[in-house]
């Protein structure tokens, strides 16, 4: 399946899922996430979910419980360069929606976390394939960001749906996941 076709299919699937279904799937994903062999962390880079995305709040709470000193960072996107920065955040950090409706931390007195300091990245996606490659929203923000992280950074995708066989039009710049967690299964690549 080509990325454009996958975006269309999985965007539509998400729109038809009810809030009740998404809440149930979020709970199942959290349970599976808790079984991942994640070492002690210093810095987590995650996303604040849009309404139809896998909600990361409970996962962040779980990782904070395991690692009380954990620093959590969220992306702030630059839509002119299709790049993003990791912004250190706390429970008190205010979030605002960017032009695409994605919640981002406000940049007031923001601390930018160096990409090399990040231990785990939780990555949003529309779908993924059996080789661990993902289809995102088409601008390459995460692939560009991941290219600057450490080689040993753990990349985890969260998906409501099981993988497709293969993304046919992968590019040399696409960065595969280490894991993807769905309501039914955890995939390791």
Automatic annotation (TrEMBL):
Record's keyword terms, sorted: ATP-binding, Ligase, Magnesium, Metal-binding, Nucleotide-binding
Entry EC number(s): 6.3.3.2
Organism from which the protein derives: Niabella ginsengisoli
Molecular function in Gene Ontology: 5-formyltetrahydrofolate cyclo-ligase activity
Taxonomic lineage of the native organism: Bacteria, Pseudomonadati, Bacteroidota, Chitinophagia, Chitinophagales
Highest taxon of source: Bacteria
Family the UniProt entry places it in: Belongs to the 5-formyltetrahydrofolate cyclo-ligase family.
Protein name: 5-formyltetrahydrofolate cyclo-ligase
Cofactor: Mg(2+)
Pfam family, one: 5-FTHF_cyc-lig
Catalytic activity: (6S)-5-formyl-5,6,7,8-tetrahydrofolate + ATP = (6R)-5,10-methenyltetrahydrofolate + ADP + phosphate
